[in-house]
Specification:
Layout lengths: L1 H34 L14 E5 L6 H4 L5 E5 H9 L1 H10 L5 H8 L7 H16 L1
Antiparallel strand pairs: 1-2
Amino acid sequence: MGRSLEKRNHKQEIAERKLAMLRMDRKMSQHVRERDGNKCCHCGDASMRIDVHHIIGRRVYALRWDEKNLLCLCMICHAWAEERPVQFMEWLCFAWSCDIDYLNSKRNEHFKISITNLLSKEIEIDKLCQE
C-alpha cells in the first residue's frame, strides 16, 4: 500500500510541476508580447502571428522564464532565427543589444525543477508582470 501511495504522490507532483510551468510560460509570453508591443523585434511586423522566441532554448530552465532571454518574432523571422542561428546571434548582439555574456553565464546555472522552486519563480514572474 505504501508503494502505491508513493507512486501516486510522485505522479501528482509531476502533474503539479507541469501545470506550474505551463502557467509561467503563459504569463511570460503575455508579458513579453506587451513589452515588445506585440510586434516582431526584427522586422517590426505586427500583422502576422507573433511568437515569443527563446534565445537560449526552453530546456535551459535557468533562462526559460528570464525576460532577457525572450523576444517577439513574427513567423518568418522566427524561422530565420532557427535556420540561421549565427546571423540571428549577430543581429542580437548589434541591433538588439542582447547581453550574450549574461545569457551564457545563466545558461550554466542549475535550476532544480521542484514544485517549491517553481512556485517561488512564479511569484517572481507575477511581480515582474505587475510592473
